[in-house]
Amino acid sequence: MTPHPAAPQLGSLTWIPATDRPDLLAAPVAAALGALTGPAWLAEIDDELADTAAFTEAYGVPMESSANCVVVAARRAGQTMLAACLVPAATRADVNGLVRRHLGARKASFAPQDVAVAESGMAYGGITPIGLPPSWPVLVDPAVVAADLVVIGSGTRGSKLAVAGAVLAALPSAVVLEGLGRLPVEPPPPAAGGPVERAPDDRDVGWGERPEERAGDDRRYLEDRPPHWGSD
After folding, report:
1. Strand 150-153 and strand 79-88: pairing?
2. How far apart are the C-alpha atoms of 125 and 154, rounded to whole Å?
C-alpha cells in the first residue's frame, strides 16, 4: 500500500489514515475517530508483537515515541470506578499514590484483565484512551501531551495508532496530571542470608488481586466487583 503523502515516518511501519482501515480498530475506537481534534494514523502489526518491548524491537519505533494505557479500578465510598492512565512507555503509572489520591479513592489497583476488556470493548494489550466509556477519567502524563506524535493502542492487538499528544489532551474525559508516570525503581539487593521482603506494589491494595487459584476464597476480589460484572 502506498503511504499517504502526509503520513508520519515512525520505524519501519507504513502509516495510513486510521479511517481507511476501520476493520483494524476496535468498534468503540473507530466510532470515536470523527470527534478527534487532529488526525490519527494507523499501522498494521503482528498481533504477537503488540506488547511495547516486542513492538519497539520489531518495528524500530523508539520507546520514547510510545505510550502505554492502563486501566485502573478505584474504590471510593463503597463504589468501584474505572479510569485510564496514559504514561510514557518507559514509565509506570503511580496507581496507588497519585492516581488514588486524585480520584479520592480508598484503594486503587490495576483492573482485572477480564473487567478491563469487557468494560472497554477492547482487546487486552491494545486498550487505548480513544473510545473509552465517557464516564472514565482519562489521566494523561504531561510528557505524552508534549509529544508531536505518540504511538498508542488501537483497541486491537493487530495495529497501532499514532496521534499528536495534544489530541489526547483534548479528549472529553482527559485530565493532564503532573507526575503520573514514574520511572521504575530497582529494589535494593536482599541482605546476605536475610529474608527476602517483597516491596509494596499495586497488588497490595487488594481490589484487583486474584487468588492464587481460581477456587481460592478471595472476598476482596469478589465482594468489591459491581453487581453487573458478575463473579467467576
Report:
1. unpaired
2. 10
> What kind and span of H or E run contains 52?
helix 52-59
Task: Categorise residue 184: left if φ over 0, alpha if ψ from -120 to 50, beta otherwise.
Answer: beta
pLDDT class of 193 with cuts at 50, 70, 90:
low
Give the side-chain half-sphere CA count within 13 A for 36.
25
> First vs last Cα of the chain: how many Å apart?
45
Beta carbons of 117 and 157 less than 8 angstroms apart: no
Q: Output the nine-digit C-alpha cell for 49.
A: 508483537
Cell of 43: 499501522
Between vectors from CA 186 to CA 206 and to CA 67, what angle results, nearest 5°?
75
pLDDT tens track for 105-131: 999 999 999 999 999 999 999 999 999
Residue 65's alpha-carbon distances to 88, 197, 201, in angstroms, are 8, 35, 26
Q: Is 218:211 a contact under the CB 8 Å cutoff?
A: yes
DSSP state of 231: -
pLDDT digit string (tens) for 28-82? 999 999 999 999 999 999 999 999 999 999 999 999 999 999 999 999 888 899 9
Contact 45, 57 (CB under 8 A): no
Which of 97, 80, 86, 100 shows the shortest CA–CA distance to 229? 80
Q: What gap in Å lies between CA 187 and CA 164, rounded to an integer? A: 35
- SS3 readout for 57-75: HHHCCCHHHEEEEEEEEEE
